[in-house]
């Protein structure tokens, strides 16, 4: 019986004795062994009594076993709900209760925290540790390494991913089998993945990037992964000679550039470097190409849509842009107030439509209706523009738009200018309350190591390039910008920190 996602990603490899995961200590896990483990996990899920459509909440460290839980959920027809390992007990309690998860799988070290959460939500608690031990592994060992795959349709739900909740309580984005599979097929083709590729995987697997982009594309193409528990600079440099491709966030690449061991010869055999989840500085693009001869491919996606755009594999990978809409994805720039499509070149809200777009927010019909139009276009909340050549640029989040004295101010324009100033490594621009203008602009600067910033000189340079209403009224220096686990700058934290700057 058909299960499109399982059949395409996993089922094709049931008799494949070739390598799938390369692990620490020169250990290798074959596709066949991995899928045998996943089948045992699926057997346990079925024995527990989970039915198709039930939710499995998973907060565990990255490991082959953790990845096998994902495969088991797909095979058993249940909905996979990965949770950030940094979430607190209170946050996990919300996700478990909101999703109605039937089972929670967590680390033994958090058993005392998770037990009352599971009990309060009438959910079963099992454990799975970074080394593969735990009650879930122990109990699953009694089940056979084969499992009769549960039939599912393309429109059936495969996963929930909860958004960060920066503008309210977190929302569970419902992703169908076709949402995930259609996007993986497009990326495999656009990025030229084949069975001869070896992907250096140092991303977390509770997020779209590491799970539904990196892992799904690897599975679909039958390639291999060097599966690192996390980004460790020494481990990445040591393993690069065995890889052909790498997917990362901007901090991966800036850290590599900061190490003298990362040379052109070390990266000479690599086929592709991909970056996403946060904007990549134009300076990083230039430095990376100068150092290695490779131009990083930047793309744009989000929890609700998987990947929307990509710079071309063949052709100009233009710094400061996220390329073109992927095949099958429609993208337009609209007026946030009216929804009308704006002329090319104007800044507005990015809306996308395609098979990659999610099914809505779990148990939030009103929020779904606000952000998912009847015609299928999803209002992303990102501000962007399309240039004369069709390249898409992200200007910022709609919620980050600053309105000062009635004027719209786009932080990205100011950040690009600040980033060019002597001694500035990176910057972030936010709006905070102002008694006269409603909001005013603050520029937060991070200096290059061992450099002092001349703030007066920076203000003078900015003053020559920006209209007065756009100029930061205050510049502050921090050792680093607050970021989430995927490297995105947390502007909400900056707005809170400097909320009283003009009071």
**Which percent range describes the beta-strand content?**
15-25%
Helicity level: 25-40%
End-to-end C-alpha gap: 65 Å
Strand order of the largest sheet: 2-1-10-9-11-12-13-14-15
Number of DSSP helical runs = 16
Give the rounded overall mean pLDDT: 93
SS elements, strand count: 24
- Major β-sheet annotation: 9 strands, mixed
How would you characterize this protein structure?
There is one protein chain. This protein is of the alpha/beta class. The chain has 16 helices and 24 strands. The strands form 6 sheets. Strands 2-1-10-9-11-12-13-14-15 form a 9-stranded mixed β-sheet, sandwiched between helices. Strands 4-3-5-6 form a 4-stranded parallel β-sheet, sandwiched between helices. The chain is globular, with a radius of gyration of 23 Å. The termini are far apart. 45% of the residues are buried. The mean pLDDT is 93.
Topology:
Layout: H1 4-9, E1 19-23, E2 27-30, H2 31-48, E3 55-59, H3 64-76, E4 79-82, H4 89-99, E5 103-106, H5 111-120, E6 124-127, H6 135-140, E7 157-162, E8 172-176, H7 177-190, E9 198-201, H8 208-221, E10 224-227, H9 233-239, E11 245-248, H10 250-257, H11 264-267, E12 272-275, H12 282-292, E13 297-302, E14 306-310, E15 324-325, E16 330-334, E17 348-353, H13 365-371, E18 378-386, E19 392-397, E20 402-404, E21 407-409, H14 411-419, E22 424-434, E23 438-447, H15 455-465, E24 474-477, H16 491-497
């Amino acid at each position: 019986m058909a299960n499109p996602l399982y059949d395409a990603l996993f089922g094709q490899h049931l008799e494949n004795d070739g390598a799938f995961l390369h692990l620490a200590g020169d250990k290798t896990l074959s596709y066949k062994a991995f899928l045998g483990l996943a089948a045992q996990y699926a057997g346990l899920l079925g024995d527990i009594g989970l039915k198709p459509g039930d939710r499995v909440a998973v907060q565990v460290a990255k490991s082959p076993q953790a990845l096998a839980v994902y495969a088991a959920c797909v095979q058993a027809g249940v909905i996979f709900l990965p949770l950030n390992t940094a979430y607190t007990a209170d946050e996990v309690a919300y996700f478990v209760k909101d999703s109605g998860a039937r089972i929670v799988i967590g680390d033994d070290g958090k058993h005392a925290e998770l037990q009352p959460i599971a009990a309060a939500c009438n959910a079963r608690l099992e454990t799975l540790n970074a080394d593969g031990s735990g009650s879930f592994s122990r109990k699953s060992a009694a089940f056979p390494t084969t499992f009769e795959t549960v039939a599912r349709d393309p429109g059936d739900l495969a996963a929930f991913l909860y958004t960060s909740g920066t503008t309210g309580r977190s929302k569970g984005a419902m992703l169908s089998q076709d949402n995930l599979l259609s996007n993986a097929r497009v990326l495999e083709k656009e990025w030229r993945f084949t069975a001869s590729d070896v992907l250096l995987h140092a991303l977390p697997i509770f997020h779209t990037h590491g799970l539904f982009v990196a892992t799904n594309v690897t599975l679909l193409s039958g390639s291999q992964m060097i599966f690192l528990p996390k980004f460790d600079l020494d481990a990445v440099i040591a393993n690069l000679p065995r890889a052909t491709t790498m997917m990362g966030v901007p901090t991966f690449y800036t850290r590599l550039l900061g190490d003298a061991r990362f040379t052109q010869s070390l990266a000479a055999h690599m086929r592709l470097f991909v970056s996403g989840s946060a904007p990549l500085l134009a300076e990083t693009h230039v430095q990376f190409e100068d150092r290695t001869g490779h131009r990083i491919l930047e793309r744009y996606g989000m929890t609700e849509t998987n990947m929307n755009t990509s710079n071309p594999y063949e052709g100009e990978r233009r710094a400061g842009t996220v390329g073109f809409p992927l095949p099958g994805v429609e993208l337009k720039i609209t007026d946030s107030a009216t929804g009308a499509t704006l002329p090319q070149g104007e800044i507005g809200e990015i809306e996308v439509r395609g098979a990659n777009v999610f099914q809505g927010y779990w148990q939030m019909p009103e929020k779904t209706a606000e952000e998912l139009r009847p015609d299928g276009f999803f209002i992303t909340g990102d501000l962007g523009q399309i240039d004369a050549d069709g390249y898409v640029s992200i200007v910022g989040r709609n919620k980050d738009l600053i309105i000062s004295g009635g004027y719209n101010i786009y932080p990205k324009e100011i950040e690009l200018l600040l980033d060019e100033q002597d001694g500035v490594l990176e910057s972030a621009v936010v709006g905070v309350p102002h008694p006269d203008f409603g909001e005013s602009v603050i520029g937060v600067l991070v200096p290059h190591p061992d450099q002092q910033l001349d703030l007066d000189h920076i203000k003078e340079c900015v003053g020559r390039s920006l209209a007065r209403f756009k100029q930061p009224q205050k510049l502050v220096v921090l050792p680093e910008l607050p970021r989430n686990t995927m490297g995105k700058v947390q502007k909400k934290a900056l707005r809170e920190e400097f909320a009283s700057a003009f009071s």
